[in-house]
Amino acid sequence: MKPVFIGVVSDSHGRFRELERMVEQAPDVSVWLHGGDYCNDGEDLSIYTGVPVYSVRGNNDFMSNFAAPECRKIRIDGMNIMLIHGHQWYGQQRLEKLVELGQTHAASLVAFGHTHRRFLKKTDGITILNPGSIGLPRDGHNGTYAVCTISKGILTNVRIYELTR
């Protein structure tokens, strides 16, 4: 069985050109996760790529007519993933709540956004990932996204990429 490549993006804020560049850089992705703040961009991304896109609402999606939930559980290749924007919590509490969310739903990966900063940490067997912001990064000049590799139901690799100019 071939590995499954999952793209994770967040905080696009309507900057579709950056999403197009991201897709050009990550052609093998078969599923995208959009962590909110312009979750409508997730719908556009699905049309543009032709692959499934799972989105959640962020704190800037209050005007959106796109019916994305605040949190969602996704099962891909036998592995549970939790996706949430993460604006509900701050500081150290955020990490604790994300780990708790992963434990509650037996998730190997919990992906979130909101901070516009990259974050990757494995805690209690759960990988906590923030891909940063594709549209308005706060930790560099170029937008960022992540690609996760799942093989036989196991998360084997997570890598955060920066958009090339």
TrEMBL record:
Superkingdom is Bacteria
What does the UniProt keyword field contain?
Metal-binding
Q: What class of enzyme is it?
A: hydrolase
GO terms, molecular function: hydrolase activity; metal ion binding
Q: What is its EC number?
A: 3.1.4.-
Domain Calcineurin-like phosphoesterase: residue ranges: 6-152
Name what cofactor the protein needs: a divalent metal cation
Task: Tell me the protein family, please.
Answer: Belongs to the metallophosphoesterase superfamily. YfcE family.
What protein name applies here? Phosphoesterase
